[in-house]
Specification:
Shape: globular
Distance between the termini: 54 Å
Number of domains: 1
CATH superfamily: Uracil-DNA glycosylase-like domain
Bound molecules: uracil
Order of helices and strands: HHHHHEEHHEHEHHEEHH
Radius of gyration: 20 Å
CATH architecture: 3-Layer(aba) Sandwich
Length: about 230
């Protein structure tokens, strides 16, 4: 049976076209990140699944008591560029994805400025559960999640590893370095069989509080762009 479209429906369709409804709807935060899932198979997929399972099996963790979801990763597991933040905030905890809130919107802009997006990078955090009140994870929490983070790097095997902010810097490079000195330099490091070039830059949340530092972050981003083209990534 053919259903007749009445004039009210036609007007509504015209109105939706006029306001570009699809574009507006698709650009809502919830949809912006609900995009391509990257079909990977084989050993890498299995190892990532195993890692996610072992993180969800972590016992005696304060963070888990108040968190709603594990925030494992986002982006393309095949990517050779991996970004590491600090830990999930409230939006990330709700969505189960890293960097989907305001800091995530700035991270997306930073990526776009060097022709990258979530389809060609991989993103995770030092801790995979939201610290209550968005506090910094404690040394003990960082130490608990560090072996899993290192394993995560070994599985992804990035050629370029970008540490966003001082928590990621301290966790993976050490506590004796300050971000203002460590940023904007390449550090060669090996995780298991994965040799990678690390660069530290400011965390997007810090850049929102200190916009004057964006010019330094831009220097770091250009270094990533250059390295990417040098390594033919
Ligand atoms: N800040 C982070 O460090 N990670 C997120 O996922 C979101 C905000």
């Amino acid at each position: 049976m053919i259903k007749k479209i009445n004039t009210k429906t036609i007007k509504l369709i015209k109105f939706y076209n006029l306001i570009n409804y699809n574009l507006i709807y698709n650009d809502k935060a919830i949809n912006r990140y609900k995009k391509d899932t990257f079909e990977i198979s084989g050993e890498k997929a299995e190892n990532l699944e195993k890692l996610k399972k072992s993180i969800s099996d972590i016992k005696n963790c304060e963070l888990k008591k108040s968190a709603n979801n594990i925030v494992f990763a986002d982006g393309n597991p095949k990517s050779k560029i991996m970004f590491i933040g600090e830990g999930p905030g409230s939006n990330e905890d709700q969505e189960g994805l890293p960097f989907v809130g305001r800091a995530g919107a700035l991270l997306d802009k930073m990526l776009a400025s060097i022709n990258l997006d979530r389809k060609n990078v991989y993103i995770t955090n030092v801790v995979n559960y939201r610290p209550p009140e968005n506090r910094r994870p404690t040394e003990e929490e960082i130490a608990k999640y560090l072996p899993y983070l290192k394993k995560h790097i070994e599985i992804i095997k990035p050629k370029i590893l970008v540490l966003l902010g001082s928590t990621a810097l301290n966790a993976l490079i050490g506590n004796e370095v300050v971000i203002s000195k460590a940023r904007g330099k390449w550090i060669e490091k090996q995780f298991g069989k994965c040799k990678t070039s690390i660069i530290v830059t400011f965390h997007p949340a810090f850049l929102m509080r200190q916009p004057a530092q964006k010019k330094m972050a831009w220097i770091d981003l250009k270094m990533i762009r250059e390295k990417k083209s040098k390594l033919k990534i």
